[in-house]
Amino acid sequence: MTAGKSVSNELGIYACPVCKRLLRQEEGVLRCPACSQTYPIREGIPDFIGEELSQSKDPELRRMRFIDQMARIYETRLWYPIVLDIYGGFHSPSLAQLISTVSQRVQSVQGRVLDIACGPGTYGRRVASPSKEVFGIDVSMGMLRQGAAYTARLGLRRTLAQSWN
Length: 165
What we know:
The protein is an alpha/beta fold.
């Protein structure tokens, strides 16, 4: 996520998960010129999983499909305060405090930042700037779609991908 720039330009930075060569963008897919693997681009988001999570043979991936359903409430009072209190205790920091901490830690960073398990871009879209290009990656296409909607509202360039490795 970055202020300015166009969506199509960022797709040239992805490498093939199989052979690590740079992928080329073609109509609706990213294709590896070396091993011919293709990865669909769904709603502007590269999909390196390439399967419906609910139909996956991998039991971990099948469980991840439930995360998609939480995307709309993930940053609301229905989710964050409850989860923070359960896992961090009743005196755990708030979402706003966590965002502030992350922002302070990457304030001096310039260039590319990778936000792994980015969800809907909770931290990445708040630290993105013209000097800080944030790439978000998550297993949940639902979270990535929600992040894309948030970044569009903010006028940020989307740099999200679905992956599981």
